[in-house]
Amino acid sequence: NAIKTFDPKMKDMLHLRQLDVRGNLLGNIDGICSTSSLFEISLDYNNLTSIPQPVWPHATQFSCINNSLTGISISDYLYNLKRLNLATSKIVSLPDDIFAFMQNLTT
Fold first, then answer.
1. What is the mean pLDDT of the chain?
2. What is d(CA 45, CA 67) in angstroms, rounded to the nearest whole number?
3. Which of 28, 56, 75, 84 is least buried, going by the fewest C-beta atoms within 10 A?
4. Cα–Cα distance for residue pair 66/27, rounded to 1 Å
5. End-to-end CA distance of the chain
6. Considering just the CA atoms, what is the radius of gyration of the chain in Å?
7. Order of strands, sheet of 40-42, starting from the edge strand that comes earlier in the sequence
């Protein structure tokens, strides 16, 4: 695949539960940050450098493996998150309060 951007209308997809766009050319996720119905998000192997504050109150799994992430903003809209995978990224530090919003993470 060669998906580079999301259509902004994706936020209107009220019944979208799972999004798997691994192995594409995504440079940002602006079009899905407000898709509040998502439970599972897989963004592995893209060209992402940052993750803006998503509004995914139902999300339990978020994977963003092998991107060029240099930072991530996590909000209280990820309080149901149980799995977070940011492996093989370039993040050098995380916000001090990142885990305060994600108390359901499992190891």
1. 88
2. 6
3. 75
4. 13
5. 32
6. 13
7. 18-20, 40-42, 61-63, 83-85
